[in-house]
């Protein structure tokens, strides 16, 4: 099975799950991708926004925080699934979107206070806000700005009544990016924990 079909199968099986924010996992992904498109973001960012939480569908990682009070490392699971098929410009913001939250909690006044209850719970399981040293190192990653951008869509893509494009409308974009293949660099690998 090719990776794009695999992605669609995962959404078909698990996309209806509750995201914990009054929207389903599918709606959250579609809202994030739609916000990226409205921003005029490049295809790589649109794809990252759409797929940033796909690791939640693997081995029940998404439910792990609520069920057992541990971190499911969904950003790593998603990165591992997609890394062999997509360029680093797609993979890095996915792998880094949790750290982007930890960074913004450390560096942006009011950011943490505005997090939803679910995001606050997962923040604590994910290690809490970055230290100043960790934040400084994160800023130096070549994918820093892309990771922050996807995080902004992640935080905003939790609306109750947002009109979005259907999942199928992203098939050509994902197929094009998968055709480019993997191009992984030391910087992208360095962003992994
Ligand atoms: Fe998300």
UniProtKB/TrEMBL annotation:
CDD domains: HDc. Gene3D superfamilies: Hypothetical protein af1432. This is HD domain-containing protein.
């Amino acid at each position: 099975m090719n990776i794009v079909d695999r992605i669609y199968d995962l959404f078909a099986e698990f996309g209806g799950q509750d995201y914990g924010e009054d929207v389903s996992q599918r709606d959250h992904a579609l809202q994030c991708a739609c916000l990226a498109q409205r921003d005029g973001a490049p295809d790589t960012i649109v794809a990252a926004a759409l797929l940033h939480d796909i690791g939640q569908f693997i081995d029940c990682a998404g439910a792990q925080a609520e069920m057992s009070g541990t971190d499911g490392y969904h950003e790593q699971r998603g990165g591992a699934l997609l890394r062999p098929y997509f360029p680093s410009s797609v993979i890095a913001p996915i792998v880094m979107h949790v750290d982007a939250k930890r960074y913004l909690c450390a560096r942006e006044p009011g950011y943490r206070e505005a997090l939803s209850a679910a995001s606050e719970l997962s923040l604590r399981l994910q290690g809490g806000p970055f230290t100043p040293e960790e934040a400084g190192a994160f800023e130096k990653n070549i994918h820093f700005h892309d990771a922050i951008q996807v995080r902004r869509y992640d935080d905003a893509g939790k609306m109750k009544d947002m009109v979005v494009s259907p999942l199928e409308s992203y098939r050509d974009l994902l197929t094009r990016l998968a055709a480019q293949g993997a191009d992984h660099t030391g910087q992208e690998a360095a962003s992994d924990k």
